Amino acid sequence: MESVINFVNLTKKYGSKTALNSINLDLPKGSIIGLLGPNASGKTTLLKLAAGLLTPTSGEIKICGLNPGYQTKEIVAYQPDKVYLNEWMKVSDLLAMMKDFYSNFNYDKALEMLKNLKINVNDKLKTMSKGTKEKVQLILTMSRSVPLYILDEPIGGVD
Question: What is the DSSP string of the chain?
Answer without folding.
Answer: --EEEEEEEEEEEETTEEEEEEEEEEEETT--------TTSSHHHHHHHHHTSS--SEEEEEETTB-SSGGGGGTEEEE-SS--S-TT-BHHHHHHHHHHH-TTB-HHHHHHHHHHTT--TTSBGGGS-HHHHHHHHHHHHHTB--SEEEESSTTTT--
